[in-house]
Amino acid sequence: MSNLRSGGTERSYHHGHLRHALVDSAVSAARSGGPEAVVLRAATRKAGVSAGAAYRHFADRDDLLRAVARRCLDHMGDLIERRLDEAEPLPGSDGAWRRLHVAGRAYVEFAINEPGWFHTAFAIPVEAQPRREGGNRGLFQILVDVLDQLVTTGAITPEARLRAEYVAWSSVHGIATLVTGGSLRDLPPAERDASIDRVVRSVTFQVDNVGNLPI
Amino acid sequence: MSNLRSGGTERSYHHGHLRHALVDSAVSAARSGGPEAVVLRAATRKAGVSAGAAYRHFADRDDLLRAVARRCLDHMGDLIERRLDEAEPLPGSDGAWRRLHVAGRAYVEFAINEPGWFHTAFAIPVEAQPRREGGNRGLFQILVDVLDQLVTTGAITPEARLRAEYVAWSSVHGIATLVTGGSLRDLPPAERDASIDRVVRSVTFQVDNVGNLPI
DNA sequence: GCTATGATGTAAACGGTGTCTACATTGTAG
DNA sequence: CTACAATGTAGACACCGTTTACATCATAGC
Question: Which residue, A121, A107, A123, A126, is CA-closest to A179?
Fold first, then answer.
């Protein structure tokens, strides 16, 4: 199986799809080992190619890591879109609230089921890419759309909409990182799930209430 | 300055405070370079000692990183305690809310002013250590105490207190990570600060409101 | 069809890293 | 004073990212 293309045909001097093969291999490694597991030489080895060959397709290791992170973000977006599609379509503001809730739960669900990919997705900054053919909208855009629906359905005021992305995202991203490898990684599963539920539910109040503190 | 103790005295075969020296050096490196900058060999070099010497004091590199992370957490706790001490002491529930707010702001303040230390603090899981002589209470305990005061002052019900740690911590930790090196790292400072403010303020509503969603 | 050229892969090296092993030196308990 | 445990050294090993000079290939233009 070494030195063969994934198809199984004997390969000649040129690989043909090396860039893709390297990313595939690194994505697979990141799934179980996180960002630290994406290592250039290992990827080239699995592709049956010399180490230097990688530099025909990536400027450096970070460049590969960025490509891997993009794929992880894609997987994440895919799951969230899928969960949104599965959600029962409630009319009006109820539906909008429901979608915010579903998206938040899916975000944490991905982090828990694919911690390696989740950590890799945020291990390196990656500029927003234009929407790919058949790809999802991207994490941030999904969130923006869901929040916009809260306004159009009259669930919240335009004032509450202001910077609501950051509020919602912070909560969900925070609990996801703390629970997967962070300081809360050893929480018993039941307590962990209850905490996630509490946090995701609380996003509602966070987004809905805007204004000055009483003090 | 090489091969000399920090005091300046010529050192003999034994260093005397090597463990401390290595941690100091690594903490200093982490301040500007984050967790990736804590490298064993560099630390031993700066201590004027051979690479292997480190293994008399640390099981491996992660063991050193853990020690560094603890110091970073200490620094974080110190700042938060300081900010809490500086806060004007309001009576009753107003004071309790104020303290929650101040602690949250201090948390993000540390992350922004010391991103290297902040990321190092959470780069590796570190078990809660018993309170050190003269040290702070530890991040989590500070939060617990602040939230308990919300109950004792009657600001929130015991029901709302349940798992409030996770709610408050998630928001604040989330915005801190997103804004320092995360996906929101390029936010213009004004927008960034406004977002932080919005998030920290929203913690109030998050903690205060508990119950089922309308849907 | 032949060939110049750019794209892609190779081989070998470099410096850096974490880690181990066998050995040297030193403080200290008995 | 001496045996021993603690601590530091020297040198090796495998691995990593990265660079350089060179080999092979696809193909555009004659």
Answer: A107
| Residue A184, token pair as written in the block | 């809360």
Taking CA atoms, B3 is separated from A176, A192, B176, in Å, by 45, 50, 39
Per-residue CA distances from A85 to A82, A99, B191 (Å)? 5, 9, 33
Taking the CA of residue B58 and the C1' sugar atom of nucleotide D10, their distance in angstroms comes to 20
Angle at B75 between CA B89 and CA B125, to 5 degrees: 120
Amino acid identity of residue A35, one-letter, is P
Kindly identify which residue of chain B lies nearest to residue A102, measuring between CA atoms: B215
Contact B79, B110 (CB under 8 A): yes
Tokens 């996630």 locate to A196
Entry pTM: 0.92
Does A182 contact B97 at a Cβ distance shorter than 8 Å?
no
Facing A215 at nearest CB: one of B98, B181, B208: B98
| A208:B208 CB<8 A | no
Name the residue with higher pLDDT: B137 or A13.
B137
pLDDT at residue A124 is higher than 50 = yes
- Residue in A with minimal Cα distance to B203: A206
The answer to whether B94 faces chain A, any CB pair under 8 Å, is: yes
| Residues of chain A contacting B203 with CB distance shorter than 8 Å | 206
3-state secondary structure of A103: helix
**More confident position, A127 or A142:** A142
CA B48 to the chain's CA centroid: 30
Q: Which residue of A has its CA nearest to B181?
A: A125
**B189-210 as b/e, with b when 16 or more CB fall inside 10 Å?**
eeebeebbebbbbbbbbbbbbb
Chains A, B: CB contacts within 8 A come to 129
As a rounded value in angstroms, the CA-to-C1' distance for A96 and D2 is 82
The 3-state DSSP class for residue B60 equals coil
Flag whether residue A183 sits within 8 Å of chain B, measured between CB atoms. yes
The predicted structure's pLDDT at residue B156 = 93
Q: How far apart are CA A103 and CA A81, in angstroms?
A: 8
Of A101, A198, A213, the CB nearest to B167: A198
* pLDDT of B10: 54
DSSP tag of A128: P
Kindly report, residue by residue over B153-173, the tens digit of the pLDDT: 999 999 999 999 999 999 999
CB contact under 8 A, A194 and B163: yes
Are B128 and B83 contacting, i.e. CB atoms less than 8 angstroms apart?
Answer: no
How many Cβ atoms from other residues are within 10 Å of residue A29's Cβ? Answer: 21
